[in-house]
Each structure stands twice: as structure tokens, then as C-alpha cells.
Amino acid sequence: MAQTVLSAAIGFALVLLSAALLMTVLRIIRGPTLPDRVLGLDMLVAIAIGFIAVIAIKTGFNLYIDIAIALGLVGFLATVAFARFILTRGLAPEQSAEVASAKKLPPKRGKAVQAVRRKRRGAR
To answer: One Pfam family for this entry, by name (predicted)?
Structure first.
């Protein structure tokens, strides 16, 4: 009885992890910004750790748990490295386009202020 429940739970977990893997890959492919893709890669590491844990339970081989811990550490360091890369690169392309377009537009002012500025420019 316990073996049947364990087998069903393992099968269910593998199906859910497979669905999560597919959705995460779609997010990485479709991700509109670089931070979305980095988050997707971090999620892939978490899903891989889940797969390794389920396989460790299924096979009873405890060395897989050590591998999952090592993968977690490497995944964390990779996420930190990607975040640092994004910070040193500056704004995302979408944000830099918005900032550039905002700088090009002059602030809206009343007609009286604009007339005074024109007079000052002409006087110089």
C-alpha cells in the first residue's frame, strides 16, 4: 500500500515538474526583458533540483541529494552573477528608450512663459 502511494506521488511530481519546465522554457523564450530571462533560468535550476530530489526518492540513492545541494549553490551564484551583469550594463533597452524619449520632450509650459523665453533669447 505504501509503495503504491509513493509510486503515484512520484509520478504526479514528475508530471508537475515537467509542466513547470515547459512553462519556464516558454517564459525564457518569450521573456520581453533580460531580467525575465534571468528569472526563468533561476527557475530552471529550481525545477532541476526538484527533478533530482524526486529521482533520489525513487531510486533511494542518497548521493543525488548532495548533487542537488551543489546545483543549488551554483544556481545561486549564477543568478547573482547575472544580476550584477544587468546592473553594470545599465538600464534595460526598454527603459533607456523611455528615458531618452522623456528627455527629448520639453516640459509643457504656458504661452506667457514661452513668450518671455523667446524675448530673452532674442535679447542676447
So the answer is: MrpF_PhaF
